[in-house]
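Consider a concrete sample entry:
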Amino acid sequence: MRIEHVPHYDPPKVAIKSRNPEYASFERISEEIRVVGYTLWVARPL
């Protein structure tokens, strides 16, 4: 799952996108969202 900021909205919105194509994406006002979790691993070029 990815959470992305949607620009140019007041109040601010976020888009919630699944990596699984079986599930649709949706948008919510940022105040309605609570993220529970943490990053396990990040990889990037040096």
About this structure: The chain has one domain: 1-46. The first strand starts at residue 2 and ends at 6.
